[in-house]
Amino acid sequence: MPDLCLYFQAHQPNRLKPYTFFDIGKDPFYEDDELNRDILSGVSERCYLPANDLFTDLIEQNPGKVKLTLSLSGVFLEQLEHHRPDVLASFQDLVATGSVELLCETYYHSLSYRASGEEFVRQVEKQKAMLKRLFDFEPTIFRHTELIYFNELAAFVEEMGFKAQLAEGVERVLKGRSPNHLYRAPNVTEIKTVLRNNTLSDDVAFRFADPNWNGYPLTPEKYAKWVSESGGEVAGIFLDYETIGEHIHRDQGVFDFWKGLPAALDEADIAMTTPSEVVEKFKVKDEYDCHEITSWADTSKDLSAWKSNPMQEEAKAKILSLEKAVKSHDNPELLHQWSKMQTSDHFYYMCTKGGADGEVHAHFSPYDSPYDAYLCFMNALSDLQVRVGA
Amino acid sequence: MLGWEFPPLINGGLGIACLGLGRALAKHVDLTFILPQTDPAFMVDQVNLIGLNHLSERELECMQKTDELRSFAEVELIAADLQPYVEAELVAREKMSTDGQTFSKYDRWSEDTGLAMFSKKGALYGEDVNARVVAYARASAALAETKDFDIIHAHDWMTFLAGMEIKARTGKPLVLHVHSLSYDRAGPEARGWIFDIEKLAMEAADLVIPVSHYTGTICTGHYGIEASKVCPVHNGADPVEAYRTEKPFPEKLVLFLGRVTGQKGPRFFLEIASKVLKEDRNVRFVMAGTGERLRELIEYGAFRDVGDRLHFTGFLNREKVNELLSMTDVYCMPSVSEPFGLSALEAVQFDIPAVISKQSGVAEVLTKARKADYWDVDLLAQHIIDLISDEKAHAKAVAASKEDQQNCTWERAAERVTDLYEERFPVSVF
User: Fold this and answer.
1) Residues of CATH 3.40.50.2000 domain(s) within chain B?
2) Is the pTM of this model over 0.95?
């Protein structure tokens, strides 16, 4: 009987305003504050506040049994602090129950690492400081943006002192093995890899509300049964927090599902656990040899959501190339602005994929097209270049 | 005169040229302009503007003489002299079509051919442009019969059908003013309805006035029109209120202005930008305008790694265009085929030297501007580098072009057109 490790990601990017050529050199503010505030508030009402209340209640009603893992991006926490301190307080209440583990990630929800180890470390340290300040929490487990993972990164993260890193259980790396075990990269000594169970996670993240799915309607009991049958030591159910109430609406029964799940799990004798408990409790079963860069995004589980056309490549390369010039200015506000433009969502909006992946990209994008997203980003980038003299 | 676009309803290049020429010509001749749409609040001194949008179907019927009406009804859609052509096209379509939809396009004509087509402001093109062209021909031919005039002067293919119909009914001489051809818009391989109308009309015309010698060579060479009746008259350029503003960034600015379509050579502009940037990073390129090649070019710009130096603005209104011109250092027009290219003259008025392709009419007017074949991106790039890196050369180029530009007026164009009228149709009394 596997344990259930339930982890939610909460993140909101700082979307750019329609920044035109005529703004270059004139307007040093790139973000659409109003849009970002409105989206944050909307999602707060539909998801963050009611979901936090739900899990706080569940934890209080089932002390020691209901356990939760959260990762909250730095830019998201910053938005909450600025626009919705009440929502931040509700997250703080939830964490204060003691049954919530917080993960560490890059503060800016960025794709950085390969381009600059120094910048990666800076963003991780910044996130740690944020979690310490807001939650008095010191994370020991790491997850990179959208569960980006590969051997080299695992080794680097180990160097930074983390005990485990979360990753997508990618079939082409697992080669038929179950994701429900604890794994280790071949090039590390201690750090463990906790994998996402793709099928069970997507059942609740994507298929839940699809009436054409043969698992529909999904009840907590049915789900608990599937988990119990999935084998191994731990089923990693990793998903966006926004699936509760935002991507899947309240009237589709998503709150009822999560409310009923603890009892159903209890009934099925499935324990809820957190990554740091998993790392203590279980031994490494096998090697997870992941040379290519994987993630939980799109159907291809790779970097293609942010890196599959020349616009994304150029935008990403050019913003990262400003590192030296920006840092030479010793201007914290400028550094912060530059860093926020590394947030992965900017490149996600530029994706020109079609099909089901394309629909998901379009759903999240505030722009009419990936081309608009690119032009707006490049204009803002040009202004930044002018300001730093690059 | 028969026109299609006209300010203030449509401010495209054709409309601006028709207004400029019409206004100047009215000082020499009695001028009536028949247009699909006019704005009653907009009047031009000494020009009688008739908008079909202000004409009722009933008024039109009263104008039509019974027999002509019958002849029109017999052919249903189109003037008699075009009937064989329509049949040929129908036969061709019938051959291609196997699903019984053969006549759908023509059926729609018979439903819509009325003045109602011109009631929606600004809607002159689109899917049913052909039907509008026929409706315009019907109505203007009927109108023409109520008027006393000596010469038919039609602007571009949309009005050529009307011109031919009026000539057939009245026997008056037909002058075709060629602002652009299907060759320019769709490439040398383009064939079909528009090409055929252009060719037929130019063959039937008594005088063809292309806006440049360059376009004249297309008329004679590509369309096979007898050279003796092709007499180019360069467009004028109305003075614009030019000003300069400080750029908010340190780099030089090179501007492309126009529709992002193959004819305007946007891809060549991108190649030029890429070449210049290899020599000098301190330049920004702006492509202002929209068109079917836009997305492809945006992505290609990223591929060429120039996305932070090549900016796409999309469509801009006049005010924004002027703002852009006011800070531009070099104007670049690498058109693949440009009958005239008024924007280059406007740029000169903003003290901007133009680097233009030899395949443009304006190259004949701006005699001292730097030119190259549109495909010679190396030379075009070199011209730009010369102008942005050498202030003296820049100032010299501006001064030289200014002189050329000042000679380029609608008054001159109107005088030349009047001379041609008198020379070609001496019986007319002005």
Assistant:
1) 252-406
2) no
